[in-house]
Write a structure and sequence with these properties.
The chain is 26% helix and 20% strand. By secondary structure, the protein is of the alpha+beta class. Strand 1 and strand 2 form a beta hairpin. Helix 1 (17-24) packs across helix 3 (67-77).
């Protein structure tokens, strides 16, 4: 969900403390967590065991709506900047899009290979896709997002409504 600040919705996040420390490569003391989160434009809302509850204050920075984004911001503050560099390649796979469809006539697809997907990572990516679909996607009226297991998809895939 989201909290309001000055008429704007602030995304509420739940992130793993251990994951935040591992991703930022900094062992953040829990007592200084509130100050560290301020650098990532977030407010500490509470800590329950490993889960940190956070209010993201900047709705113009969706990169800070996940553990990965917050960790990059905190690491940069401590002189450890750096976004990973990905070199996309054109693949052989394809998706056939029905551009005549009145509902979602466009699609963007990507295949990410060789990812180590932990439970914390999967939780964050699902949480981020939800926040983006609700905010920028206007509760999924303008856009929606999904993550799928490529092993369960037959390619080429078809996207969009077809006429009966």
């Amino acid at each position: 969900m989201a909290a309001k600040q000055g008429g704007e919705l602030m995304p509420k996040l739940e992130i793993s403390y251990e994951d935040l420390c591992a991703l930022s490569k900094i062992r953040i003391k829990k007592e200084s967590l509130a100050d560290e989160l301020l650098y990532a434009k977030c407010e500490l809302d509470g800590i329950e065991k490993d889960i940190i509850k956070v209010d993201a204050k900047d709705t113009n920075r969706p990169d800070l709506w996940s553990t990965e984004g917050i960790a990059r911001e905190i690491a940069g503050r401590h002189g450890k900047p750096g976004l990973p560099i990905f070199k996309p390649k054109k693949g052989k796979e394809s998706v056939i899009i029905n551009t005549q469809s009145q509902i979602q006539p466009r699609a963007v697809c990507a295949i990410a290979r060789s990812l180590k997907i932990s439970e914390a990572f999967l939780s964050q990516i699902i949480q981020l896709q939800e926040k983006l679909s609700v905010s920028f996607g206007r509760n999924r009226r303008e856009m929606s997002m999904g993550i799928y297991d490529l092993d369960k998809i037959t390619l080429p895939s078809r996207w969009g409504l077809t006429s009966p």
